[in-house]
Amino acid sequence: MQHLHEKTIASEVKYEGLIFTVAHDTVELENGKTAPREVINHNGGVCVIPVTENNEIYLVRQFRYPFKEITVEIPAGKLEKGEDPAECGRRELLEETGCTCTEYTYLGKLYPIPAYDTEIIHIYMAKGLESGAQSLDDDEFLEVEKVHLSKAVEMVMDGTILDAKTQIAVLKAARILGI
Hints:
- The chain has 179 residues and is α+β, with helices and mostly antiparallel strands.
- The chain has 3 helices and 10 strands, in the order βββββββαβββαα.
- The protein has helices at residues 85-97, 149-157, 164-177; strands spanning 7-16, 20-28, 34-42, 45-50, 56-64, 69-73, 76-78, 99-110, 121-131, 143-148.
- Helix 2 crosses helix 3 (164-177).
- The radius of gyration is 19 Å and the shape is elongated.
- The model has no long low-confidence stretch (mean pLDDT 96).
């Protein structure tokens, strides 16, 4: 067996929901012993940091039920099975902010919780923004605000922005744009 590798020897789906499934797996460790693993299987998601010509970004405030509080995030959404991440990001940008863009740059992907979740989040930066009308989903309620990217970096550093994907996108964009 390869060093630092675990081989799945059994897997049983324990829960199947609208957004994810939960499996209980048994793995063989590199020393030959077995161990249990609980895995959340998720289709993944996309986030987009929209940057204006003045280096302002659009943030959204929305209620997040698991924490029972309002969070500050960049536009984002979940991928449907087989959906192209770039197209998903463009759709979410339009739905949540009403913006389209002429420049769309892939900033990479992240594993938000690699210990037990298969979710991968793809990060994009949108520039050349053109404003239009929001088209939120029926169960989506949010407020959009515009802040300078340097202010968003401060919000990451002072703990105002707690969402991991937003923190990473803000810091990457600031680094790329020299802010």
